[in-house]
Amino acid sequence: MRTSHFLGFGIEMLLFPTLADARPTPSYAVAGTIAGPDGGWDYTSVDPVTRQVYVARADSVTIADLATARVRSVGSTAKSHAVVPIPDQHLLLVTSGRDDSVRLIDPATGVEKAKIAVGKDPDAALYDAAKHRAVVINAKDGTVSLIDVAAARVVGTIALKPGLEFAQLGKDGTLYVNNEDASEIETANLATATAGVPIALPGCTEPSGLAYDATTALLISACANGKAAVVDAGKHKLVKLLDIGLGADAAILDAARRLAFVPCGQSGVLTEIALDANGGPAVVANIPTEPGARTGAVDPRDGTLYLPTARLAAPVGSQKRGVPLPGSFHIIVVRPHAA
Fold first, then answer.
1. CA angle 102, 175, 155 (to 5 degrees)
2. If DSSP codes are grouped into helix, strand and coil, which group holds residue 292?
3. Regions in the chain scoring below 70 on pLDDT
4. Contact 227, 203 (CB under 8 A)
5. Number of Cβ within a 10 Å radius of residue 35
């Protein structure tokens, strides 16, 4: 995942007319923030059962307990990219990019149960509960590590291409992985541990975040050039490009509410996409958030979104981006309400 931070100013909400659909689209607004410790951040996940929000940080995992409002950090990593709850093992799987490892951490105690060597720069990860197997995307060497979580060991490796980003698992067992460098979606058959035919994304540069809707078998890929690519996974074909904000680094699916969201850190907005609009997925709103809010996750119970960010200093000298200001890290809480 790209770790760039962005400077900018608040942007007024841009509401697009709701299309003539069978159900009304909820509207959303920032409802508050959750303060956390200093440092960078990357992917976020929500466990709706335990009501925990997990944020991958530079050297640990930050946990926000939604019931008690307690915030704490656990583990010790080398540039965390992703944190994935493993419910049946009561563990967190955390990718550690700078030392090419995956950590298995007890979220209750913070104790590291295992450290597993994987490919170069492990970034995104997901858990296939049916197979009790984790899938780890190694960005720089272009491989996928298949991990038996219970045994804490790699049981297979799939060679794709360097430049890998976020991944999703299709309902037929196909793995889909964004490739930032090639501007395409790589595919793989997990059953045979073999690479498949990539899906070209013309008009989409540096795709990062990726969502998959099992109902329609559509993929939504967040692109660096202010576009979201909608792809028919079954046909391996780009369907349309949607206009979104800039600085996107995630795509978030809320299947229950038939919505997808793309947090756009440079523009400081959260683009809302109606999945079942007439003519296919369509942008219905750009919800003001904050500059730097480029990743996030949704609580499927109530549709609340959690987006980590911080206030950012202006770049100094040769710096390409501003750094987070001390004491300013927080998680933005975005809640839906009836239209």
1. 45
2. coil
3. 1-26, 319-321, 338-339
4. yes
5. 12
Of 215, 213, 210, nearest to 228 by C-alpha is 210
| Chain segment 80-135, per-residue pLDDT in tens | 999 999 998 999 999 999 999 999 999 999 999 999 999 999 999 999 998 999 99
Beta pairing, strands 61-65 & 237-243: unpaired
Give the H or E element holding residue 145: strand 143-148
Residue pair 82/118 in contact (Cβ under 8 Å)? The answer is: no
Beta bridge partners of 148: 133, 153
Residue bearing tokens 């899906």: 199
Q: What is the pLDDT of residue 313?
A: 85
Question: How many Å apart are CA 68 and CA 92, to the nearest integer?
Answer: 20
- The bridge status of strand 305-309 relative to strand 218-222 is unpaired
Q: Is 159 helix (H, G, I), strand (E, B) or coil?
A: strand
Q: Which domains does the chain have, with CATH numbers?
A: 14-337 (2.130.10.10)
CB 262 within 8 A of CB 2: no
CB-based contact 232:220 (threshold 8 Å): no
Which tokens go with 73?
A: 């950090």
Residue 246: per-residue pLDDT: 96
- pLDDT of amino acid 321: 62
